[in-house]
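User: Now give one protein:

AI:
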Amino acid sequence: MLRYFTVPVTPFQQNCSVVYDEATRQAAVIDPGGDLDTLLGEIDRHGLRLEQIWLTHAHIDHAGGTAELARRLSLPIVGPHPEDQFWIQGLPQQGAMFGFPAAETFTPTRWLHDGDTVELAGHTLHVRHCPGHTPGHVVFHSPEMKRAFVGDVLFAGSIGRTDFPRGDHATLIASITQRLWPMGDDTVFIPGHGPESTFGRERKSNPYVAGT
């Protein structure tokens, strides 16, 4: 059975999720933005073996710890979409701008595209390209768990910012309505910040996308 837990990291309290197979204890981490010692302590506490890094997008609070973590544990970096390469290259500047620890650039082991899949211990998650917050943002959907790890595309009661370079509001709304809603109203999503919610709840009450 596939399970997960979330560890808030960085001063931005980014929801770094750890997905793992209950039987084998194999794990993947989604968006290791920083605070790696805290994150690795939680992974050890759960008795897990970390095998992969999955990235939704390359903003500093989501990707700032990626290069160091990959180097420490010899892990492959999976994602995001190639359109976020300029954000990866700008990680040192992002860190300086927001007062984060020094962040390194990296080259993903594998870029992701819409319709791709990622696998962990025989479990498959589906990848959807959901641009708008960043041009290369992707989302990881597990039909098995009825969970979606959506990064900064959608939040409980809000949506991702689109005022960063190459953000676009209309594109973000299209990503939500065309790529997320078809996953089902009962799908629980884990956002990059704040509490979990369901797509159905957001379709009814989120002021940015209600009724779409």
Notes: The radius of gyration is 16 Å. The helical segments are 36-45, 60-63, 66-73, 85-89, 91-98, 169-180, 199-205. The domain at 2-205 is CATH 3.60.15.10 (Metallo-beta-lactamase; Chain A). The CA atoms of residues 66 and 72 lie 10 Å apart.
